Amino acid sequence: MPRNRPPMGRARAVFRAVATTIIPEAGRLGPDEWEDVEAIIDRALAGRPPRLARQLALLLIVLEWLPLLRYGRRLSRLHPARRLAFLERLETAPLMLVRRGFWGLRTLILMGYYGRPAAAAATSRTRTSQAASSRWRRRCTKMAARSSPVRAR
Predict the structure, then answer these.
(1) Is residue 100 part of a domain?
(2) What's the total number of domains in the chain?
(3) How crowded is residue 42: how many other Cβ atoms within 10 Å of its Cβ?
(4) For residues 134 and 144, what is the distance between their CA atoms, to the nearest angstrom?
(5) Is 74 domain-assigned?
(6) Which domain does 39 fall in, by range?
(7) Nearest to residue 74, comparing CAs of 62, 59, 64?
(8) How far apart are CA 25 and CA 10, in angstroms?
(9) Residue 146 lies in a domain
(10) DSSP string, 53-115
């Protein structure tokens, strides 16, 4: 597959910054492994309307520049702790469109990373990845409880 293809294109750095924040182990991927991740995502998007790939590319560009307002730096240049704090705010944002965009991107990243043959073969997970996944699971549970339309009285 050719390089610089949508949806990554110019937003490849921000995509990788988000991916390594969500999955810390992704920081150890080499260029060929990143190509595998992107190829899996490209295949998933291939059957979707072209506007979805454009929306994903636009989301990545917005994610790159939005932290500039709060932190004075673009997302791909933020310290990992600040990047995580920024992404945590997005996952619980009051605007549903923002939450959906983030969760859609997160889903694609998880699918791309764990859909690689090498990741499927490496079923033993490190303590770091287990801690990261349990943190995300707890956040998902809290978010689901907050956004539930039915509230207990």
Answers:
(1) yes
(2) 1
(3) 17
(4) 15
(5) yes
(6) 9-125
(7) 64
(8) 23
(9) no
(10) HHHHHHHHHHHHHTHHHHHSS-GGGS-HHHHHHHHHHHHT-SSHHHHHHHHHHHHHHHHHHHT
How far is it, in rounded angstroms, from Cα 31 to Cα 3? 11
Q: Decide if 131 is inside a domain.
A: no
- pTM over 0.90, yes/no: no
- Predicted confidence pLDDT, tens digits, the chain (153 residues): 444 344 566 788 999 999 999 999 999 999 999 999 999 999 999 989 989 988 999 999 999 999 999 999 999 999 999 999 999 999 899 999 999 999 999 999 999 999 998 887 774 555 555 666 666 666 666 665 665 454 444
Euclidean distance between CA atoms 101 and 93, whole angstroms: 11
Backbone torsions φ then ψ of 80, nearest 5 degrees: -55, -35
